[in-house]
Amino acid sequence: MKIICNQRILSSSINTVQKAVSSKTTLPILKGILLETCGQQLKLVGTDLEIGIENYIDAEIISKGAIVLSARILGDIIRKLPDEDVEIEVDMNNNATIRCANSEFTLIGQPAVEFPELPTVEESDAYKLPQDLLKNMIKQTIFATAVDETRPILTGVLMELQEESINMVALDGYRLALRQANIKNALNNKAVIPAKTLNEINRILEEENTDVEIFFTDKHVLFNMNKTRVISRLLEGEFINYEQIIPKEYKSRVKVNTKSLLGSMERASLLAKEGKNNLVKFSVRDELMTITSNAEIGKVFESVSIELEGEDVDIGFNSKYFLDALKIIDSDEVYLEFTTSVSPCIVKPTDHSNYTYLILPVRLVG
Questions:
Q1: In a domain, 122, yes or no
Q2: Which of 13, 139, 208, 235 is deepest in the core (most CB within 10 A)?
């Protein structure tokens, strides 16, 4: 194999597929990146058997072939080369010579035939979604996935596709994030996608409205983004019926400025995180909500102007869970909906109904 391509483009491509390469694997071949000629393009592939990323770049193909090279070393070498053409030549013994300007490296590679093939996902029945919308939907849900593997299904995000809409839902037992959007779909579908996969997708997606194509099989999902394809296994099992968890009514509703509440919560959390459960207490009265936190090293008192509809309420929360939601809501004002001091609180924007965040309270003592 012999190819010539641009250093900057090659470095960017390696950086993309490297996201799927695990340094902890016991299989040496999985620590590498597959480089393979594909027509007039060079295909790069990285995988850890859970997620696979393919990226295609334009290259001058002098002779066809394929090789697997160490992801870490290849990435370091190409990144340090000058912004000029890079020539990669592979001999019959899987030795790769990399030339650029005044530099020449020789790397011992591994045969491409030993590299695991990515699962085949038939590319019919595509679901199309603007890149910027998908990026936003991931950002507004992924933080609420479970980190604990005791309930593996909760370490992913449920994606529900219906004829007129798409829902993405994440929950970890303490809070729930639901993001909805209107899109046209030919078919209904739902699947639970691992948070790790969506994290990598989010890093690849661009802030533009060109479409991502999404294809499903029973066990895998394929995201096709222009010259990058991500194939991931799906999580198996039944996702919790989240609609049953979200309260339909409230006894108290607070309207509050998002930035004011965020600022107060950030200051209150400075002491809250010194305590055992990150506790902050809300006291809702008429036109004022006070936020307090007591820790061994001291206490904090914050007050925020509000509009209250309904009853007064005293309720406690883990400040981190509240901050996570406030940081990703892009509306100027939010509603906080309460039923009782031991019932879930709903946080939602005042100007649209696309986002719902539920957080369980912490029981107040005394």
A1: no
A2: 13
Residues linked to residue 51 through DSSP beta bridges, in sequence order = 232
Three-state SS for 221? strand
On whether both 238 and 135 belong to a single domain, the answer is yes
Residue 86: how many other CB atoms lie within 10 Å: 24
The pLDDT of residue 284: 96
Look at residue 364 and tell me if it is in a domain: no
Residue 219 carries which DSSP code?
S
pLDDT for 229: 96
Parallel, antiparallel, or unpaired: how do β-strands 279-285 and 298-310 relate?
A: unpaired
Do 274 and 330 fall within a single domain? yes
Per-residue pLDDT band at 366 (split at 50, 70, 90): low
**Dihedral angle, C-alpha 55, 56, 57, 62, nearest 10 °:** 130
pLDDT tens-digit profile of 26-54?
899 999 999 999 999 999 999 999 999 99
Cα(11)–Cα(62) distance, integer angstroms: 20
Q: How far apart are alpha carbons 275 and 292 in whole angstroms?
A: 13
Domain that holds residue 260: 247-359
Residue 23 pLDDT class (50, 70, 90 cuts):
confident
Nearest to 119 by CA among 18, 236, 234, 220: 220
Say which amino acid occupies 334: V
Look at the chain and count its residues. Answer: 366
Which amino acid would we find at residue 224?
N
| In-domain check, residue 104 | yes
pLDDT digits (tens, 9 = 90+) for 245-284: 999 999 999 999 999 999 999 999 998 888 777 899 999 9
